[in-house]
Every structure is written in structure tokens, then in C-alpha cells.
Amino acid sequence: MYRNHTCGELRLADENKEVILSGWVQKVRKLGGGITFVDLRDRYGITQLAFYKDVNEDLYEEANKFGREWVLQVVGTVQERSSKNKNIPTGDIEIAPSKVIVLNSSETPPFTIEDETDGGDDIRMKYRYLDLRRNPVRKNLELRHKIAFETRAYLDKLNFMEVETPVLIGSTPEGARDFVVPSRMNPGEFYALPQSPQLFKQLLMVSGFDRYFQIVKCFRDEDLRADRQPEFTQIDCEMSFVEQEDVLQMFEGLTKHLFKVVKGIDIPDFPRITYADAMKYYGSDKPDTRFEMKFVELKDLTAGKDFVVFDSTEYVGAICAKGCAEYTRKQLDELTNFVKRPQIGAKGLVYVKCEADGTFKSSVDKFYGQEELAAWAKRCEAEAGDLILIICGETEKAQKQLSELRLEVGERLGLCDKNKFNCLWVIDFPLLEKDEELNRFFAKHHPFTSPHKEDIPLLDSDPATVRASAYDMVINGVEVGGGSVRIHNSELQEKMFEVLGFTKEKAQAQFGFLMDAFKYGAPPHAGLAFGLDRLVSLFAGLDSIRDCIAFPKNNSGRDVMIDAPSVIDDEQLKELQLVVNLKN
Amino acid sequence: MYRNHTCGELRLADENKEVILSGWVQKVRKLGGGITFVDLRDRYGITQLAFYKDVNEDLYEEANKFGREWVLQVVGTVQERSSKNKNIPTGDIEIAPSKVIVLNSSETPPFTIEDETDGGDDIRMKYRYLDLRRNPVRKNLELRHKIAFETRAYLDKLNFMEVETPVLIGSTPEGARDFVVPSRMNPGEFYALPQSPQLFKQLLMVSGFDRYFQIVKCFRDEDLRADRQPEFTQIDCEMSFVEQEDVLQMFEGLTKHLFKVVKGIDIPDFPRITYADAMKYYGSDKPDTRFEMKFVELKDLTAGKDFVVFDSTEYVGAICAKGCAEYTRKQLDELTNFVKRPQIGAKGLVYVKCEADGTFKSSVDKFYGQEELAAWAKRCEAEAGDLILIICGETEKAQKQLSELRLEVGERLGLCDKNKFNCLWVIDFPLLEKDEELNRFFAKHHPFTSPHKEDIPLLDSDPATVRASAYDMVINGVEVGGGSVRIHNSELQEKMFEVLGFTKEKAQAQFGFLMDAFKYGAPPHAGLAFGLDRLVSLFAGLDSIRDCIAFPKNNSGRDVMIDAPSVIDDEQLKELQLVVNLKN
């Protein structure tokens, strides 16, 4: 037996017990005077081994030779420490070893394996198996396990069945780019890896499975960013005989449950906001509502005072930064430079300081008097000491810029507390998005999303205004989940394909099996998918989803630890009847 | 609200309740005399809707037009049936509908959607979404969900963490053929889909994760059979600081638990048998122990009586078929023809009938007298009425043939009861397998399997005899799980690669990252993987794993429902810098 206790469980109550522990050497502390302490670590904690020269000279000499990350098995007796460590649960005791077996030695690790490490990103990714030894990294994965486990337990209780859908499926040219897999048994043909099990879960509804879920890997061959990986995990759900309201209730319940059991937080009922209002008040379809700072429109109040910049523009919008009237020139310049960055693209930033004495100071006070500025402030509900920040331009663009500014100001004011969680539903998304260049409509969500019943006639007359029965769950400005009521009627589905500019042949070729399935009694159904990686990141307060993935890939889609992807044998290519033809 | 009850839950106690149900029309029974019954079905059961002409003529007329598999929403009142159906839980009641909404109509399904269907395999696979509506098919998937769910709950309680390992990994030329995925971002390079997370789970042990599991899709590009699919699911497990005994205890515990909670069966402690004994007594490393019928060696007793066939051969083995002395000429011929089939390949079959009067009748009684035959019978523990069946030949081949015969006879005697479960561990597998043609050794399990400690010196002197710390869990002759203690020592691992004929460069190129990882303090570790598909099939009493997979592929690796794999756009190939080059 390698151990009968873990390194995290022994207490003073265990005094005088003979125990066996196994673990890694975290640290060897040679105190001098014939005393050496070794911290032995495993997943559960750290226990101190105490080697005293005058108790056992051989063991003491041996212990002085242990290096960091050696693997030891220790037989010894639990005893009370003379100098207790209140920072760790085992801090009252130490082990007096009677026997130590070195199970494995270790080379010096390329970075220190402690909560704070000296290793940079690259080296930690190359030696990810060592990075995973660090507490904060392991804790992220423990959290991930717990969230997945509790999700399953919650849904199972409510009669949801987890059904595995295939990973080797057919390619669908719509949406993001597929990863493909050449088929050796069917030369010249390819499987695709699923971007989501969308079609299969809808087929399961046709099959009468009625409450389906799956925690499942999905794949997208897209250029990567901090919150994107080529493979990611979804909590994928679908229900039959439900309306939008049922789905919102169900998954709001799941989310509250997760916050409660995983983080001990009670989340109130989720507010709901329409897509239109989200854009109007936050300039974003995933507003961070940990703080208010809603947009205020000032166009009408600014008009006619010969300030051409405002007069000639479509939209003038403001936010009120509480208590920021004291901002210095330098701070204001920083904000101006922030919104002028190319990725944000505003032309400039107008401010109004609401001074303590009730007067206003503004970058545009050449054009606007105290009375006008007071009217703006009133509409912004700004008080003395507040700072009003104004952006103008073409409505959609200016709203997006103002949204970025809002988040930046929120961050500067410390309003983006990672321990505070604000959840909401964004509903009533537009069904379609027009690509002006191609002069065609695309599905904003996907082609199976149902329009609002009352908007169906608009599909012919004014498609751009049709609202979808689609919803996103947004937490702290992160879209953690999204879904829709699906079309379950063949004719409406055909109509939808028509609006999307699919020929009958193309629709048949791509989704024929789904449309065929719908001919045999498809029930009304709706669903939702959570991004598990994002959900875990959010729960853990991480900036990147990479940190909650055991073995993530870098921005070039490479796993630098195992060095994949890589070239393969000619023999393998030959079997697949493929030739690599590199462009130069 | 589409429903407030399911079609499986209403009872006599609900009499007079107004309810809303939704579901599919299973059957319309027009009784005449103004009465029509409609069976409404959902995942939970069937409820009878009763339409009486004299109660509501319009609804009655409407109901007569309903077709099979239409989707209905029904508002009505629960009432007691006049003619009760004891075969279904809702058989005491019926619904008197006040309102029916047709949610969807249905074309006539291509096969009947009932427990026994008229649809052949091909049509049911093409319309799998309709096949899944059938009770027995859905029940297999419910069982699958339950087994997976209970496995997770059991392992979570014991501190196992589920960790997701990557699906896009590197190709490893050892083992079965990999599916590969061309990388667009790294042209000319390929990911591979994992045949198992073997390397990653061992890295997690190096990381100190100590108790890992994952229910995970794995992939093998092999030619397919009834019990093989290109994608399949494993319950993959690994533990640190354990010996073989710990692993056997742990997963024997899990298996017993699953039998208990899923099937209500108490399984006794699993017997253990060495690989050598399994071959000796059953001619198989996965013996079906629902019945004994062990092999008995007769070589010594048969020698020297001028029967050249036995005298000139290496092995003479017998099984005793209880109570089969009455077998007719025809039945004996059937058995002889069975063992002579090309896939079995025996030259012939010798029998000895133990007659009721104590005499013996044999196909070789020209050579052997009653006394000799009596000695054989004694060793076989055969009694009056039994039939002894004998096969001879080169030991290994003859044992395999006798194994097939044993299973055939067991089947004929009704000893292979699908409701009886016999579990056992097969241990002490050989570490290596020699390919005589290539004159090199292959790892029987995989190259990370640890040899028995006491056999390590034999790696140099007599590699073929080295026993591995490897084990299989066998239930009813099916290998449902297997694993091994791993090598955690770099030198032993290098030695192993040397025996397997890997050059240092090749070992480094393929497994370098694992060997590197082992330099930083690898703990002793061991693991096991269950085939979930096989486990579910076994629990469900299925002949093929295909029946417990929602959307399986056929023997050509095709999903005939979605018609995958398929050709992809030239544009996609161009982006991947690949050319299809079909041989003719």
C-alpha cells in the first residue's frame, strides 16, 4: 500500500497514529542545528515531514539530499508541531518519519511549482503537466469537474437524458469553417467534426426524446483569440412541447443552482432585456450589468447650436461616470485615446464636468452655455461631481464605441468586480442579418430559429424587422449561453430557406434529412447551449478560457506540449488517397 | 403551455382532473357505433383518448381523420375506463377530450413504430430518428444514460475528477490506424483523433491528479464489425499511488455498483484467473464463465494406441457436454461441420458417448477399448448420459477451436442466459507478443505497461515469458474493460522501447513528451478503461453495440441517415492545401 492518508487530512486528533503518505517534495527547509523540514504535497494538501538528526541521523542525512518534486513514500508517526502554521489545515502536526522510500527523483523543474510561478506562458504551456501541479491551475479544473457534475445531476433529476451524438458527421458549408476528416473507407469523401450537435438534437426531438442534454466537444476551424479554442465544450440542451418561457425558466433554474452549489451565491430572478433595448442602453447584445451607466441620447438637446460635429451626425450618446468630475487632463486624454484606438475607431470624445459648485465645464463650452449643459446633465441624471462622456456618429458604430468606453470606465471605477455576478436574458434578437455587399440575408442565430409568430407575415414584406424567438444568457457581459425556439413546421422551414436565398436543391442537399424528418410528426421544440469553458472561466474569475482547459492549444492551434499537429507518414496519405500541395 | 402531464402518469386517482397532454398518435381505433379511441404516446407512456360521437360529434369526426404519428395537443378530463387495460400503467383511465390541436401531421412512416417493427436494418438506419421512437431502442439509450450517470456519481464520491483531454492530438503510428484532421493554420500538418486518452491520463498522473476519469469518445480507423464502430466511448480511469490490487478492487466495486443500481443484481466477488489458465481451461483470454465445461487434456491417455491423428499431434483436449449422449448422428455432424468451418478451421471432431448402461461409444473405438474410454471419461468427470467432444492439433490453434466448440455447445444447451452475469478478472497477461514474420516484439497491451517486478530480468534473457501487470475485466465472455500498471520509471520505459525495437530517435519522436514528463517526478500509477458501448450492450442483452448508439455508422463507416462522409467543396480542399488523388 502506497499510502493510507492523503497529505491534506491529518490533524492534531491523529496524534501518535502511524501513517503512510505519498507525494511530492514541495520544499526542503534545512534549518540547521540538525533539523530539516520537508513539505510533502499531493492534490489534497501539504504535510510537514520533520527530520531530526538526533532522532535518526541516516534519515536526516537522506532528507537533506531530497530535491524539489521528488516523489516520496513516507512511513511515520503523527506528532504535534512545536511551531504551528495557522495558514494550512495540517499546520498543527508534523510527521516523524521512520522510513522513507524515494519513488522517483526529479530533474529541476523549468519553473517553480508554486501558486505564484516564475514561468512565462510559453514555458508553462510546453510543460503543461508541471503547470497543472500548481494549486490555482488544478483548482480551475476541479471547478470545471464540479460544474459539469452538478449540471448533470440537476438535469438528470428533471428527466433530461444525456445522449451522445456522433463526432464524425457531414460537412455543412453554412456557419463557421468545419474541421474535416478524410475517410479511408470512402476515398475522396470527408467527415466533418460538429460545430454543435444542432441537427442531431433536433432529430432527437423528432424521435420523442423530449428532454435531451449533452456535455459535448464541438469544433470550429476559426482564427483564434483568448476566448476561442479550436475545440470547446458545450452544455447542449433541447426540449419538446415547450415555449420560450419554459426554456428560460428551466435554464435560469440550472444557472441559479450552479451558483448556489458551486459558489454559495443566491442569484435573484434574471432581468430580461430586448435586443433593441440592449443596443439602445448598452450598445451591446451582451451588456455587463454589474453596473448601470446606461446610455442617454442627447441628439435633440444638442441640435441647432452650430456645433457641426453633433449637428451633422446621426447619434449623440452619453454616459455618466459617477464622481469623475475630478478627472485630470491626463485622465481625460487617456479616455480620448482609448476610444480613438483603431479597434474602437471613434473620432473623439466630448466631456462635461459637473463641478461641485453646480457649474459645468465642457470640451464643447464654446458652443453650449451653462443652461444647455445643465439640460444634458439633467437627462443623464448627473450630479455635482459626475463626469458626462459623449460620443457621436453613425448610430450603430457610435453605440459600439460608447459601449467600449462604458466598460473601460466601469473597469477604472472598479465596478467590474469578479466576485459579483449579474445575470440577464437578452431576448427578441432579429431573425436575420443583411449582408449589404452580397445583398442577401443570413440567419442571425441559425436557419432553424423560429420567428415570432406575429412577425411571420413580415418575412415577405420586411424581413429585416422580423424578431426571432431567440435568447442569450449573459453574465457580467459574457454570453454564456444562447438558444432559440426552433421551426417545427416544414413549410415555415422552407420559407425560411427561401428568405436565406437557398435554392430548393441546396436546402435539400444540406438539410434534406432534417426537412424529411419534419414530415413525420415533429413536435414543437426549443433549446439552448451553454459554453462550458466560458461558464467555468466566469465562475473562476479567469480572463481566458484557456486557463480552465487541461491541455489547451495556442493561438496557432498548436498543442506545444505534444507538438501537434504534425506531418504524417506518406503511407498514411496514400491510404487516404490524398496529396499535400503546399502553396509557396 | 403545451402539457401539464405526460402520457405515462395519469391514474384512477386523477379522475375528473382537467389535463393537457401532448404526444404522438400511436394508433386510431375506430370501434364503430360512434366510438373512436386514440392512443397518444410520448417517452413516458401511452394514454387513451376517447372520442364518443354522442358527446362531441365534431371532435369525433376529427379524430377519425388522425393518422399514425400525428402530433396532438389535447385538453380533456380524466375518466375511468369501462374496459380496463391491465398491461399499461395508465390502463384504468382515459381522457375525454374537450379540445384537440393538431400540432403537426405526419406522412405514413416507412415502417411501423411499435416494439416489433416490420422495418429491416437498412430502412431503420436511414430513418433512425423514427426507429428511436420505438420503445426498445429508446430504452437502450435510457440505460446508456443511466450507466454513464451512475458511473460518474460513484467515481465523484470517491474523489475522482473528470478531466477533458483534447480530441485534436498528434498521430501515433503504433496501434490501430488513426483518423487524421488536416490543419488549415499549419498547412501540410495533421491532427489525429485519439484512439484513447492514454498519454494524457498518464500526464495527469504526473500532474498529481491522482484519481482521474473521463467518459470520452475515442476513434479507430479500422475495418468494422458488429462490435466495432469508428467512434466509440470509453470510461477511462487512472489512479496514482496504487498497485494492481487497488485498481481491481476499485473497478470491481464500480461494476458491482452498476449491476446493483441499474439491474438490481448482487454480483459476488469476481474470481481471478491468469491468462495462462484462461487459455488452458477455456482456450480464450475472455472466457464465458456462465458455465464451466473446462478443457481437459487427454494427450497422455490417448498415446500409444496407434491412432496416428492423436499420436502425431501436440495437443488433445476435451470438453464434456452434460446430458448430450443422446445426440443423433445429425447433431454430431452439425458440431463436426461447425468446427470444420474455415473461420474455425479444425480438421475434425472426436466424440465419446457415455451410455446409460455404463458403456462408451466413440468415433475412435477402433483404436480405443472400453477401459481407455472409461479413463478419459473419468478425467473429464463425465457421467452416464454425457458426451465428450475432443479436438486435437497444434496447442494454441486447437485450444481456440475447442473454445469455439465450447461456446457453441453452451449455446445449444441454453447455458448462455442473457439475464445471468458472470464477471471475472483475467490477470498476468504476457507483456509481449512476437511477430514471427517481422521477428520483433510488440506490446500486447501498450508500450507503457509495467512488467511484473520479478520478471524484469527476463526482459533481457527471455522476453516472451515476461508477465505484465495487466488485467482485463470479462463478463459473459465479453472483454468490457482492461488496463495495467504503468511504467513510471524513465529507465524501465527506455528499456521497454529497446525491447520493442524502437530506436532512441523513434521513441523520442513519438513519446518524447511522456518520457520527458517522467523526468520530473512521475508517481507510480495504474489504470483501466471500460468500453461503454460493450458494457451497455451487455446490460441490455444486445448482440451488437450498434443498438445502444443513438446514431451509429454502418460497416462501411457511413451514416446513412445524414449521408456522411461526403465530398467537400474544392474551396475547402484548397484552403487545406490538399488534393484528392483517387486510385482507379
TrEMBL record, chains A, B:
It comes from the Bacteria. L-aspartate binds at E174, R220, H445, R486. It is found in: Cytoplasm. It catalyses: tRNA(Asp) + L-aspartate + ATP = L-aspartyl-tRNA(Asp) + AMP + diphosphate. Residues 141-565 form the Aminoacyl-transfer RNA synthetases class-II family profile domain. The keyword Phosphoprotein does not apply. Its main location: cytoplasm. HAMAP family: Asp_tRNA_synth_type1 (MF_00044). Belongs to the class-II aminoacyl-tRNA synthetase family. Type 1 subfamily. Catalyzes the attachment of L-aspartate to tRNA(Asp) in a two-step reaction: L-aspartate is first activated by ATP to form Asp-AMP and then transferred to the acceptor end of tRNA(Asp). Homodimer. This is Aspartate--tRNA ligase. It comes from Dysgonomonas alginatilytica. The lineage of its organism: Bacteria, Pseudomonadati, Bacteroidota, Bacteroidia, Bacteroidales. The gene is aspS.
